[in-house]
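ENTRY TYPE: paired fold submission
RECORD: A
CONTENT: sequence, then structure tokens
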Amino acid sequence: EKTSKFLENNADMENLSGCKELKDFVVSLEKPRKIIIMVQAGKATDAVIDSLIPLLDHGDIIIDGGNAKWTDTIEREKKLNQKNLLFVGSGVSGGEEGARFGPSLMPGCSIDAWNAIRDIWLSISAKVDPENGKPIEGATPGNPVNGGVPCASYIGSDGAGHYVKMVHNGIEYGDMQMICEAYHILSAIGGIESKEIGEIFENWNNGILDSFLVEITADILKQKDPKTGKPFVDIVLDAAGQKGTGKWTSVNALDMGVPAPTVAEAVFARCLSAVKEERVNAAKSLPDSGKAISTEDQTELIEAVRDALYCSKICSYAQGFQLMREAQEEYNWDLNFGEIAQIWRGGCIIRAAFLQKITEAYEKDSSLPNLLLDKYFSD
């Protein structure tokens, strides 16, 4: 039913067809077949793969675009290679919008598999302007942007793509928590209203904090609840969920002895937000933070919070890249950190202007032990 409705709503799109049976779908594809699956990580992914295996021929390719754990991807590739099938574990960033209008793609696979999907991956990915690194707009479903620099690149063998996507998500957790804390300081200590904080974030987004998450935060803070007229951020349930990739990142960092406190604390903050009833009861017993600062001190506070947020973001990305550096030794990968930063510039939840500076840092010194040691960031 969903397939029929989708085809009906997109009747003007060329080369779009639907099948009710998996066998019919497989038969409809040109050989070697390239099949993308995007389902919940874990048992659901294995179930789909197991259903496909008896229908495929030697040399066909299964591509997992879900948020799979990298160790599962390694095992799945081994299993499929034994059956003369190729497997790609590709990180996909950008959410539903990215999937339709151009995502950031992080494939991990053999060179043979990459050569088979390379042109497709480069074509459908988001594109950025080669001069300023800004995302190029204008893509529509079935009509990706031509020109520009693709936000897709070969990451490495087996589980490398899904590992890099996991770290990407860990950085995303950290980014969102830091933005939340910046908002809280401006609101609770600065005494600034939500709408005005939205304007502050909008101003920040026009400067060094230019990024997707800061941009959408500015928009969110301006929204009002149509029923009450109150700022939406003040009435929405403040209990965050999580899908597990932040936890995976934190646990892996602990396993390898790599300090990644920003990601870990962001995960704990989500855990804390989930115990809503306990927090409400605690608020009745514990004193509040006191009075807001004077209006005269707000300007200084706003500048201090902006600088702290920027510095914290740099530290968070440095932790993520340090974790990937250790992982490549552990799993025998050859990661290009400059390219990883480059493909995160468009179609990506953590896209930010300063990713260009990260690319430049690793282009100057590919063996840079820590991002904070690059002159641009250390200054």
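RECORD: B
CONTENT: sequence, then structure tokens
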Amino acid sequence: MIGTLSDEFEVNVSAREAWALYGTLQFTYICVPDLFDKVDVLKGDGGPGTILQPFTKPGTGALFYTYEDEISKVDDENMVKEVRAHKGGYLSLGFNSYGVRFEVIKKSKNSCITKVTVHYDVKEGFISNTSHVSIEPFTALVKYSNNHLINNHKK
């Protein structure tokens, strides 16, 4: 079974300013104090092939304490970043694949849309585990990042 969840938010900064955050590892690190105990970079420099191991804070409602994700795409021209499950996490619940796509879409000179899409493919015998799929952790990450952008906006 294949599924997707998506949400988007307008932020009053330029698309390039937003991408300067979303397109880098800083995107993950600004959320560390509130959402994660830490995020280890196991391999890479933030580009495709980078392996991240986040450790979620207790009490955040996260389904998994730790897992590994791989940054599979960073497209600076189209302002798209894709991250997919690499080890553990949803893969341990019978998913063939689980990934997240972040996009920054120019709206005007000083405004853009930040869009997040969760996509997954679950094995036939594990379809009930799709009830654990939620876009909420990623919308929280996007909202947190957008607030960071607004509070640190280059005026």
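NOTES ON RECORD B: The chain has a mean pLDDT of 92. The beta strands are 2-11, 36-43, 51-56, 68-75, 80-87, 95-108, 111-122.
STATUS: closed
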